[in-house]
Amino acid sequence: MLHPVSAMPADAFVLRETEALDFLVYQGWAYEALEGCAALTNARRLASDTLERLRAEGMAFGDGAGGPRYDPVALMDAVTDLGLRGRDPTFLGAIVPKGRRMVDESAARLARAPGGVRGFDVEFRREIPEERRASLRRVTLPLPLEDQQQRIGALSVESPRDTAIVRREGRLSFTGRGLAGAGALVVAARFRLEVGGCEVSRPEPAGSGVDPMELRRREGLVVVTPRIHETARRWTSGATTHVERIARIWDELLARIRVQRIHYDALPQDDPLGSILDDGKCDCQSDSALLVAMCRSLGIPARIVGGYNLYPVAVTPHYWFEAMLEDGIWRPFDHAVSWMLAGGDASNQTRGRQFFGRVDARMKTQRLPRVFTAPASALPLRWAYLERFVDGVHEGAVIDRSDGGTFQRDLLRVVEREAEP
């Protein structure tokens, strides 16, 4: 039974109440969660109050063995929608302030870093339950791309015996008989990561010209339809430079869209971005795809990039985009996070342009379409993605909605090496 009546299938509701509370704590009260004890107890109480308000406001949920079940997409949809309508304080009173604090602290750390380079010790552990191992032929683990902004060093790898390990750009690949053993499969990488300030002042050179792939009119979510082209042309009328055209599109979307989570199964394959314009809802990947499509429709080379945020309270998968300006230099842009930092207020130009032409320290692992590991957040309806803390470590778990079991579990520990005074 669904409460209230919903068109969503029953297996969309996969999170138990304790998991839903963990998820909400991670989204809004991560600092308190890491403090532990009384602060964590209070954070869970606030998350429980939020969950109760969401149900009272009509958020759909399901009945399962042991109590109610929740959909993480529906949770964040309700939190964002009710927050922007002034009916729940969680979005504007917890999630947005947490995001601003993360970004401001990151900027302060960069200002103290010698030469503008920050250093991190990273442990990335991927676990796959025993019952999922039988069908495995290959397991991949993301690694940072090496470019002018980031460099990896002192890499060590953990895997079962009889496993072949191949390092490629942006990933480690594991194959062999060791994947089919008993118990949970564990692969891990530990490395040092140096990340420079990813600003306009430290651009990535474009190399020997434009890759035709970065102007393609169809690439996964990036689908340049006549409507996308006409909309971009209309919004940028009178603009004379690439950066001005991107800024016009950026500001229009700040005022028109809402960044949350989405079910990718609901997007029509022939025109996924048109449906986002119609519904006004997107996540970081689809938002980046929309901006990339509009840039390409105007002849601006653009590409989606992905990886992981490196905030101490949020080591999470994320997507943003890069565009090449007339000088042949690639600049990074993060529209989705800028929208969140502005609290959905398009008039807040300081926060709304926070990551226009620059981003903060991230672990970049994908540069689509040529360097691609696996979807980090664009999951089919069969799977749900749960973020939470487990003993102070960041967990990202892919849950199979069909049986509620864990398909894959990532544990990330990131410790920044403080700069010498």
Radius of gyration: 21 Å
The count of DSSP E runs of length 2 or more, i.e. the number of strands, is 22
Oligomer: single chain
For the biggest sheet, the summary is:
6 strands, antiparallel
Spatial sequence of strands, sheet with the most strands: 7-10-5-22-21-20
Integer average pLDDT: 89
- How would the global form be characterised? globular
Look at the helices and sheets and give the structural class. alpha+beta
Counted by DSSP, the helix tally is 11
Helix content: 25-40%
Low-confidence stretches: 1-7, 200-204
Proportion of beta-strand residues? 25-35%
Task: Walk me through this protein's architecture.
With 421 residues, the chain is α+β, with helices and mostly antiparallel strands. The protein has eleven helices and 22 strands. The chain has helices at 17-28, 30-35, 37-56, 72-84, 90-112, 226-235, 242-256, 272-279, 284-297, 335-341, 349-352; strands spanning 2-3, 15-16, 61-64, 67-70, 117-128, 139-142, 150-158, 164-168, 171-175, 185-196, 204-205, 218-219, 222-223, 258-259, 281-282, 302-309, 317-324, 329-333, 362-367, 383-390, 393-400, 406-417. Strands 7-10-5-22-21-20 form a six-stranded antiparallel β-sheet. α1 (17-28) packs across α3 (37-56) and α6 (226-235) crosses α9 (284-297). The longest helix is centred in the N-terminal third of the chain and has 23 residues, at 90-112. It is globular and about 60 Å long.
